[in-house]
Design goal:
The chain has a single domain, classed as Aconitase, domain 4 (Alpha-Beta Barrel), CATH 3.20.19. The chain has a 7-stranded mixed β-sheet with strand order 4-3-2-1-5-6-7, covered by helices on one side. It has 7 helices and 7 strands, in the order βαααβαβαββββαα. With 164 residues, the protein is of the alpha/beta class.
């Protein structure tokens, strides 16, 4: 996948994506229009569906607010690349079909075109001559992501079982 990079910094918590002040009561479209406003004014207005969020350390820390992933999906986020993630956010992302990749994001800039290949475990930013090996994504996780999340995967493969 080739996608434009949208850069955020370190320690981006779920409240910055999906502020608790809007829950409950506001619809997802409104909340998505406010995403990351506190740390990057106008981010949601600049973001184009299909983009990749490139962040620093600890993306998605804070709460286990699954709505944050729903908002990112509503925005059309294709993937998030960061050196580390909050563990609950990471799993919520996979369960909801959002690609999350742990990778060094040094020297990737706003607007760069990123190629992510989960099959070969490589991230490339050609214009900056950046090629980075990614941790291997297990086939079961890639299958869940291909189907759009855990529930669609289990509906399609109701008899699927974990193999050793």
């Amino acid at each position: 996948m080739l996608n434009r990079a949208y850069v955020l910094g370190n320690d981006v918590n779920t409240d910055l994506c999906c502020s608790g002040k809007y829950l409950p009561g506001k619809d997802e479209a409104f909340i998505a229009s406010q995403a990351f406003e506190a740390i990057s004014p106008g981010f949601a207005a600049r973001f184009v569906s299909g983009g990749v969020i490139v962040a620093g350390e600890h993306f998605g820390i804070n709460s286990s607010r699954e709505q944050a992933v729903h908002i990112l999906r509503r925005m059309g986020v294709a993937a998030i690349v960061a050196p580390s993630f909050g563990r609950q956010f990471f799993r919520n992302a996979i369960n909801n079909g959002l690609v999350v990749v742990e990778c060094d994001t040094t020297d990737i800039a706003e607007g760069d075109v990123i190629a992510l290949d989960l099959e070969t475990s490589v991230l490339t930013v050609a214009q900056r001559q950046i090629t980075r090996a990614l941790p291997a994504v297990p086939e079961a996780i890639r299958a869940i992501l291909r189907e759009g999340g855990l529930i669609p995967f289990l509906k399609k493969y109701p008899d699927w079982q974990v193999t050793a």
